[in-house]
């Protein structure tokens, strides 16, 4: 299983607000390491959405926002649109592992 | 506009080797760390390897350490991933990502590596 835990799926109707959680531990998010979020549309490459916990990447609408508290982080999407239907991944660093990046397992967002 | 184009993927037998390339344009290549991330069919993202802008520092996931080698040629704006002793579990789409050692700002479209007899 993944070092960071995300719900496998979330859903919402157009116009609604949804949040995706990313739960870590004291060796990654809880240790103060930044969390980054990626969006992967169907059959496409990942795209950076949020970096450094709450900074939107260039061109990302302000409907997307990130936050971090304790050992968890969240991605919020307001004013849901059909084109937001995608997989979302959180990513951070873990000091107990030898690699650089650790990912969550991904969350499939369905727009009803 | 930054563009990253991976190549070199294909079908290879277990135990074989393959070299992936990622050609970059629209950026000062040597200023950025480069990463490789893979995604097995129907699965999530897995970080594989990273190299600093100068090429002086390299990093590997435990799953590929000792088998894969990352390198870069800043004169050609290209990063490479030499993959040796390939296993079935290395089957994945391999993405290169430009950015820092800590996250990927821009990603290529990926190249598929299939390890099968």
In short:
The complex is a heterodimer of chains A (112) and B (117). Chain A is mainly beta. Chain A has no helices and 10 strands.
Folded structure, characterized:
The complex is a heterodimer of chains A (112) and B (117). Chain A is mainly β. Chain A is built from no helices and ten strands. In chain A, strands 1, 3, 4, 5, 8, 9 and 10 form a seven-stranded mixed beta sheet that branches. Chain B has 117 residues and is mostly beta strands. Chain B has strands spanning 3-7, 10-12, 18-25, 33-39, 45-51, 58-60, 68-73, 78-83, 92-99, 104-107, 111-115. In chain B, the strands form two sheets. In chain B, strands 2, 4, 5, 6, 9, 10 and 11 form a seven-stranded mixed beta sheet that branches. Chain B has a four-stranded antiparallel beta sheet with strand order 1-3-8-7, with no helix packed on it. In chain B, a hairpin with a 4-residue loop joins strand 7 (68-73) and strand 8. Chain B is globular.
Q: What is the element layout, followed by pairings?
A:
The complex is a heterodimer of chains A (112) and B (117).
Chain A (H helix, E strand, L loop, with lengths): L8 E4 L5 E6 L12 E5 L6 E5 L3 E2 L7 E6 L2 E6 L8 E7 L9 E2 L3 E5 L1
Chain B lengths: L2 E5 L2 E3 L5 E8 L7 E7 L5 E7 L6 E3 L7 E6 L4 E6 L8 E8 L4 E4 L3 E5 L2
Parallel strand pairs in B: 2-11
Antiparallel strand pairs in B: 1-3, 3-8, 4-5, 4-9, 5-6, 7-8, 9-10, 9-11
């Amino acid at each position: 299983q993944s070092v960071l835990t995300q719900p496998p799926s979330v859903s919402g109707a157009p116009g609604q607000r949804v949040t995706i959680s990313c739960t870590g531990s004291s060796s990654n998010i809880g240790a103060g390491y930044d969390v980054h979020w990626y969006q992967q549309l169907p059959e496409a490459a990942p795209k950076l959405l949020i970096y450094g916990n709450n900074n939107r990447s260039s061109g990302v609408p302000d409907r997307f926002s990130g936050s971090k508290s304790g050992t968890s982080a969240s991605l919020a999407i307001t004013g849901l649109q059909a084109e937001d239907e995608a997989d979302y991944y959180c990513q951070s660093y873990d000091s107990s592992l030898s690699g650089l990046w650790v990912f969550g397992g991904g969350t499939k967002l369905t727009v009803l | 506009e930054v563009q990253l184009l991976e190549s070199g993927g294909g079908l290879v037998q277990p135990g074989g080797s393959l070299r992936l390339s990622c050609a970059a344009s629209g950026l000062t290549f040597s200023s950025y760390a480069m990463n490789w991330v893979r995604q097995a069919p129907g699965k999530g993202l897995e970080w594989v390897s990273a190299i600093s802008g100068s090429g002086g520092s390299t990093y590997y996931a435990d799953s590929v350490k000792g088998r894969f080698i990352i390198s870069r040629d800043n004169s050609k704006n290209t990063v490479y991933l030499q993959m040796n002793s390939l296993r079935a579990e290395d089957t994945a789409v391999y993405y290169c990502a430009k950015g820092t050692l800590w996250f990927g700002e821009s990603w290529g479209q990926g190249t598929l590596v299939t390890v099968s007899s």
